[in-house]
């Protein structure tokens, strides 16, 4: 299990950090844990699956 920060997810998906936070808030991208500062951490496999789904639906 590889965890990614909001910044890493944003870079991977080529979107802004604030959009990753919104995706998590809307439960479109589920945070698996929180770091010591309370920021969400995402599993890499979940992020990859989200990217594939979003591309099939017309883009992120």
Overview in brief:
With 60 residues, this protein is an alpha+beta fold.
Q: How would you describe what is shown here?
A:
It comes from Alteromonas aestuariivivens. The protein has 60 residues and is α+β, with helices and mostly antiparallel strands. It has one domain: Multidrug-efflux Transporter Regulator, Chain: A, Domain 2 (Orthogonal Bundle). Helices cover 50% and strands 13% of the residues. It contains three helices and three strands, in the order βααββα. A three-stranded antiparallel sheet has the order 1-3-2. A hairpin with a 5-residue loop joins strand 2 and strand 3 (40-43). The longest helix is centred in the C-terminal third of the chain and has 13 residues, at 44-56. The protein is globular, with a radius of gyration of 11 Å. The N and C termini lie far apart (24 Å).
Walk me through the topology.
Blueprint lengths: L2 E2 L1 H8 L3 H9 L7 E2 L5 E4 H13 L4
Antiparallel strand pairs: 1-3, 2-3
Helix pairs in contact: 1-2
Q: Which structural class is indicated by helix and strand composition?
A: alpha+beta
**Strand arrangement across the biggest beta sheet:** 1-3-2
| Global shape | globular
The helix-strand sequence is: EHHEEH
CATH architecture: Orthogonal Bundle
Number of domains: 1
Q: Find the CATH topology.
A: Multidrug-efflux Transporter Regulator, Chain: A, Domain 2
Largest sheet properties: 3 strands, antiparallel
**Low-pLDDT sequence parts:** none
Overall mean confidence score, pLDDT: 94
Helical content stands at: 40-55%
Q: How large is the count of helical segments?
A: 3
Assembly type of the chains comes to: single chain
N→C terminal distance: 24 Å
| C-alpha Rg (nearest Å) | 11 Å
Q: CATH class, please?
A: Mainly Alpha
